[in-house]
Amino acid sequence: MINNNEKFAIxxxxxxxxxxxxxxIKINENLSIATEFPIEIDNYWKKWIGDIQxxxxxxxxxxxxxxxxxxxxNIIDRNxxxxxxxxxxxxxxxxxxxxxxxxxxxxxFTGAKYNNIFEIQSFSQMLKPEFVNGTPFRxxxxxxxxxxxxxxxxxxxxxxxxxxxxxxxxxxxxxxxITTDDWKNKLHNYVRVIEAxxxxxxxxxxxxxxxxxxxxxxxSFHSLMEKVYAIRSNIEHVHEIQRGFDNLNATQFQKLTIxxxxxxxYLLNFFxxxxxxxxxxxxxxxxxxxxxxxxxxxxxxxxxxDINSLLEEIDKLI
Length: 318
Description:
Blueprint: E1 6-13, E2 24-26, E3 31-34, H1 43-49, H2 51-58, E4 62-69, H3 78-97, E5 107-114, E6 117-125, H4 142-161, H5 165-179, H6 183-198, H7 205-212, H8 214-217, H9 222-236, H10 250-273, H11 286-289, H12 294-300, H13 307-317
Antiparallel strand pairs: 1-4, 1-5, 2-3, 3-4, 5-6
Protein name: Apea-like HEPN domain-containing protein
């Protein structure tokens, strides 16, 4: 699986929400998904990372790993970072598709194989993805992996264009929302994802957060989006979350967080899977997109997120 004079990066998850019949799914010559850890765990690994984490790795059921041939496998250099970045990019692609649930911190490391020996060259824990109770999710099956592959390829192509820094900031906010265990920061970050797409004018953010999201969710949810934005403002300005609301309880806030996350996930997935709209959301063109007529914008963004169906799902889970 990993040959002599190859460097590798692996990101592994313990007890992830996986339903894969294949033990290895090859994405390309270098990148693969495995339901068993791709390297034998021996005493060398235990010495490096300890007994507990070695056991978590040994019993992990999802690993993303990347390998490539290098000239100097024994030297820690940019090849380590490049391998690591490919693995992380696929992880990003996967969590834009569905929740990635796991029971321990994701463990990430780089290394090399030379002289028939594996060497660990870096090791770290990542923040564990956290989800709000009541969030609908798909188990990670072959269909989810196939969708993630398409997002992965789209992200590679999009990054090569170097024209969508605003959208990439939105992706980063989404990842921040996924990994924080603070509900307040979750909602705050997901609102930022939405703002990456609506590009509100300074001084008109609150009004345009309602009006411009019509394109993505339809015209019947102004009061909902007004409430989301008001809560976001309370969080931004370090006020109590319920300031300005008579009866905002924990369950209602929970639902609003799930809704905001689901909208932001929808935006990222629809955008990545429709390359014909990329040119409208470049840093230099997004202003012009929002100056188009509503009819023209609907022609370009030809889909709506179904909030009513989402609410039905949430009510079954909470």
